[in-house]
Amino acid sequence: MGRVLAVIIWIITLLSVLLFVSGKWWFPEGISSHAPALDRQFLITILVVGISFTVAQIGLGWMVWKYRDTGAATDRAIYTHGSNRLEVLWTVITAVVFITLGVMGQSVWASLRLNEAPPGSYSVEVVAQQFQWNFHYAGADNKFGKTDPKLIDDGSLNFVGLDATDPNSADDSVTTALAIPVGRPVELRLRSKDVIHNFWVPQLRFKQDLVPGMEIKVHFTANKVGKYELACAELCGQLHFKMRSFMLVLPEQDIQVLQAMPQEQFQARMLELLNQYQLPTY
Amino acid sequence: MATMVTSTRPVIQKGAGGSPGMPGPNGNGSKRRDPFRGPDSKGNRYRIGMWVGLASIAMMFTSLSSAYIVRSGSAADWLPLRIPRVMFASTALILLSSVTLEVARRKLKRSFAEAYSRYLLLTGVLGLAFLGSQLVAWRQLAGQGIYLSTHPHSSFFYLLTGAHALHLAGGLLAIGFLYLRSRPKLDKPGLATTRQATADAVSIYWHFMDGLWIYLFLLLFLWR
Amino acid sequence: MSVEHHEGVHRHPAPTGFIRKYIFSVDHKVIGIQYIILALAAVLVGMIMSLLMRLNLSWPGTSWPILETLFPTGAPGGVMTPEFYLSLVTMHGTIMVFFVLTTAPQGGFGNYFLPIQIGAEDMAFPTLNMLSFWVTLVGFIVILLAIVVEGNQGIGEWFGTNLGPSFAGGSGTAGPIGGWTGYAPLSALGKIAGPGQGAGMNLWVISIAIFCIGSLLGALNFITTLLNMRTKGMSLMRMPLTCWAWFTTAVLALLSFPVLLGGGILLLLDRIANTSFFIPSGLYVSGLLSGSNPNFPLHTGGSPILWQHLFWFFGHPEVYIAILPGMGATSHILATFARKPVFGYRAMVFAIFAIGLLGFFVWGHHMFISGMSPYSAIAFSVLTLSIGVPSAVKTFNWLGTLWGARIRFTTAMLFAIGFVSLFVAGGITGLILGQSSLDLPMHDTYIVPAHFHLVMGVASIFGMFAALYFWFPKMFGRFMSESIGRIHFWITFIGVYTIFVPMHIMGIVGMPRRYSSFTEYRFLDSLHPLVVLVTVAAIVTIAVQILFYFNVFWSMFKGKKAGDNPWEATTLEWNTTSPPPHDNFAGVLPTVYHGPYEFAVPGAPKDYVMQTDVSSEVPSGNGHNGNKH
Questions:
Q1: What is B85-223's CATH number?
Q2: Count of C-beta atoms within a 10 Å radius of residue A196
Q3: pTM (2 decimals)?
Q4: Smallest CA–CA separation between A98 and chain C, in Å?
Q5: Distance CA C345, CA C348 (A)
Q6: Does the pLDDT at position C627 exceed 90?
Q7: Coil, helix or strand for A247?
Q8: Rounded (5°) CA angle B121-B123-B126
Q9: CA distances (Å), C41 to each of A70, C99, C175, C469, C624, in order?
Q10: DSSP characters for A149-212?
Q11: What is the chain C residue with the closest CA to A102?
Q12: Are C70 and C151 in contact (CB under 8 A)?
């Protein structure tokens, strides 16, 4: 029984490790400036995880194999209550490894979240609702028109409550897809109309909740042109699974051109671009 | 099926082992302290149980307090609340009731059963009066048009005083129970050992409710 | 040399009559069994729900006839609507976490065995004990009611008409939608936020509030009993590790459930009394602006993050409440069938404390990207990784217990070994999820349920299986079938790994949680084979639990008879009859002379020395000083 158990544990361990290293399923290609550092940290972590997992399972299997009761009546187990020295040793080693990993795991977070978007960032207001994304662009003047919840009217397509009387909103556009420039820091100002949503593009390695009643500012830089799927990653109701949109990462010129367009042209151009760019092959 | 869950067979005492002439139960010449002497008293059981229970009540009011503090700073809609004047009377009533209960408890300790009973009754009456004063306070606020949902400060006022009143009502039931047991005709023999412990436990609870009231009073009216 | 013993005080005579003996019993043993039966019923409901969820994910659009009969609105034509799926997610989580993992380990086995293992006649407050079970059962009935009120049109409408509009149900779902975490404002807004947000959600909150009270009453009892009623010689450091685990779990419950209760009351008030604890200003929901319409009254200034803080301050200790008893049982059972003392008893006690204590300071790791301060995220993250240290220490000590052992592979032992394997597998991925940076891609993906199912949903359950196979002979005087038990173990062990290891991969690829369907996103297309594999494994694993249920109930009546100490174990429960008499020790409380795991003592006549054995071979003092012998 002990030998069978050991073998089964080892087979499970082997298959699990193979599943991970097979490479058949993994993160999609990272396109953000922090993705390399994040992927590196993930790799280091998964190595620690994998090694600890494997060693522990091998150890467990070995114990149950070697120390199974072979039935010799006078043969007793080793009488020991433990070893203080061992306790100290493995506590210290584990603490050092885990806490080092923990401290290392803060650096990408700190670089993204402890500071504001650098000056010159491209800003977009994101307003989420059940079950659609709304992106509010500042237009050529780089100033966002005022918005007010009281002015929201889904029926007349004023999803973000744009105040038409504010001169700054004249050149603003609101669409359901995100377009950002490549290689330039992007600042997202995240809001929600109703419940908590979460902005997520897997290739960005980046998530943030959109909380009603708060405006949350986050920033990142995307380094590869293309079209990427955008998903909601916080349960927001029955169509949570369908709250899908796209993020277009465009060359800087295209963004400038787009930015100068008025609302209707902007939307038409977005549709063209969404058709033009293809999703990555998976 | 009866023997499935509890057995009626006699228990054979195990453990009559060890070699003859062996030393005491601690093994050979141990310098360690005496073995654990055994179960604690039933009286202590009630007291410990009460402190443990109060820890959980304290945690609940702590969580509501932290919600209060967070909410008071989370938006611009926080409005001050004028203290209904009757709340001062409430405070006096509950403080007094703690005094009378403590007197009652000490009377019992010195076996003055009659006095114990009387002071219990007094405590009960004061407790009822406190609850009454709470109702008056709520009525007064409602009279000004301030209800549970009017603004966050009032929401917490009703919630915290309501939760406190509910727990106090429970304490009042306990005082009533003690009072009934203190009447000679209704007393059961064999309860003597636990009577003091029960009285102690209820006192701890009541004093806690008193202290909690003071704390809530300060929280509601001194914190913003 | 006679054995020292002392008279127990007859607290209450044995009850007579069926009702007092088996229904409204104050006997901790009966109450323990009642909790276990409640958990067995709840886990059945939870498993059926997860099965339905898996079927929907693997073969979307399929018509399941039984659904059409039971939930015509939620699954028209037998095909699950997204809201129906999400209600299953919510109820599965709620029922499993509360009514399975917070009942059987503590209220079930803890209730039954804590008093006996410390040499007491019953719990400190037997009537309160009975009350805590019945309160918990009422909570369960209320949560089942939530399914019925939302699922059935007629009943749902009745509720709305008679209890007020916020209690209107009948949306067709199998209960509320919100996940077991019930984040506000989705959970606070009521019907305008979508289906499942009416009566079902109210009843969900009420059920949880009732459960909190039941749990608190139980925690009070456990702590008082352990502090007050240990028999002569049973010092704290001679207690079995199961008792340490139950004690720490009770302290965690005592301090964390009240916070959930507080939060739940605030949520309920937001829902039915128009307060704004969690609902901010300026909301626009389902085409209505806050305050513009009687269907959507005015709310201002509330904080959705406040709910998360309150919930997770409870929620994190809760997961340790779910696993600690299993850890205690594993230590206990490993030692017993390894025929060796627990390696590092003292370290194990400290590790239990450390896990319990640190468990109160890490709740923010559920909220890294919630919008809370990024600085606190850093603090929570580092603290979270440090909680891995005591868990690792426990694992090393379990391995140390097996080293040099003479292992007897009973079914209980198999499950205990399985616990160690699964706890390592599940716990180790905490290193990934605990880092704030890595949470950026991993939050709300399938790696989260992969992690917590392995630790909570599997390791913890293995602890319960081990405990049941181990203690069944004591509880019922009969063994469970070992051969059926073995089949149960092998298939479940292999099955759960097959279910949950692929989920890690799904999370890495990016599969989000709480999606009723994955067909909308191209980046998820490649995962379909894994999804089906997981479902097939789940079907097999759930099916084999039928064998387990059969084993439990058949063995109660027809199992092989068991004596007082069939496993040759050392702790106090094996000193008394199987099952024990009403007052556990027939009026004569035992005296304890040494620690709980004196196996393989050199020179002792047998390879085990019971705690009540007066024996000179056991080294001086309590029998374990943590030094090498």
A1: 1.20.120.80
A2: 25
A3: 0.94
A4: 6
A5: 5
A6: no
A7: strand
A8: 110
A9: 40, 9, 18, 18, 41
A10: GGG-BGGGTBTT-B-TTSGGGGG-EEESSEEEETTSEEEEEEEESSS-EEEEEGGGTEEEEE-T
A11: C382
A12: yes
Q: What is the DSSP string of B60-98?
A: HHHHHHHHHHHHHHHSTT----PPPTHHHHHHHHHHHHH
Question: Most C CBs within 10 Å: which of B1, B3, B4, as the mutation test of the C interface?
Answer: B4
C606 CB contacts (<8 Å, ≥6 apart)?
C568
> Is 50 exceeded by the pLDDT of residue C3?
no
* Rg, C-alpha atoms of chain A: 26
- Taking a C-beta distance cutoff of 8 angstroms, is the pair C37, B9 a contact? no
pLDDT in tens, A25-70: 999 999 999 999 999 999 999 999 999 999 999 999 999 999 988 7
In this predicted structure, the answer to whether residue C364 has a pLDDT above a threshold of 70 is: yes
Q: DSSP per residue over C236-258, as a string? A: GGGS-HHHHHHHHHHHHHHHHHH
Place of tokens 């500012």: A217
Residue B151, amino acid: H
Query: What would the DSSP string read from start to end of A27-86?
Result: PPPP-BTTHHHHHHHHHHHHHHHHHHHHHHHHHHHHHHHHTB----TT---------HHH
Report residue C574: phi and psi, to 5°: -85, 5
Interchain contact, C341 vs A80, CB within 8 Å = yes
Closest to C610 (Cα-Cα) out of C573, C570, C572: C570
- Residue B83's CB is within 10 A of a number of other CB atoms, namely 13
pLDDT higher than 90, residue C4:
no
- State the chains in contact with B (3 or more Cβ–Cβ pairs under 8 Å): C
Q: How many CB pairs under 8 A join A and C?
A: 383
- Selecting from C313, C586, C615 the residue whose C-beta is nearest the C-beta of B18 gives C615
CB atoms within 10 A of CB A164: 12
With contacts defined as CB-CB under 8 Å, which chain B residues touch C14?
6
Residues of A in contact with C395 (CB under 8 A): 56
Q: Give residues with Cβ within 8 angstroms of B177, minimum separation 6.
A: none
| DSSP bridge partners of A216 | A190
The interface predicted TM-score (ipTM) is 0.95
Contacts of C87 (CB under 8 A, 6+ apart): C74, C147, C150, C173, C174, C175, C176, C177, C196, C200
Tokens representing C250 are 């009770």
Q: Select the residue of C382, C386, C405 nearest A67 (Cβ to Cβ).
A: C405
pLDDT in single tens digits along all 282 residues of chain A: 899 999 999 999 999 999 999 989 999 999 999 999 999 999 999 999 999 999 999 999 999 999 988 776 667 899 999 999 999 999 999 999 999 999 999 999 999 999 999 999 999 999 999 999 999 999 989 999 999 999 999 999 999 999 999 999 999 999 999 999 999 999 999 999 999 999 999 999 999 999 999 999 999 999 999 999 999 999 999 999 999 999 999 999 999 999 999 999 999 999 999 999 999 988
Query: What φ, ψ does residue A34 adopt, rounded to 5°?
Result: -95, -5
Q: Which CATH superfamily is domain C18-575 in?
A: Cytochrome c oxidase-like, subunit I domain (1.20.210.10)
DSSP code of C329?
A: H
Which among C266, C477, C612 has the least Cβ separation from residue B7?
A: C477
Residue B49 φ then ψ, to 5°? -55, -40
Tens of pLDDT, residue by residue over C560-596, are: 999 999 999 999 999 999 999 999 999 999 999 999 9
Number of H-type helices and E-type strands within chain C:
20, 4
Show me where the domains of chain C are located. 18-575
Among A2, A98, A216, beta carbon nearest to C386: A98
Please tell me the total number of residues recorded for chain C in this structure: 629
* Burial per residue of C399-427, b for 16 or more beta-carbon CB atoms within 10 angstroms, e otherwise: bbbbbbbbbbbbbbbbbbbbbbbbbbbbb
Token output for A33: 């400036």
Query: Which residues pair with residue B84 across a beta bridge?
Result: none
Report the chain C residue with the minimal C-alpha distance to residue B155. Answer: C275
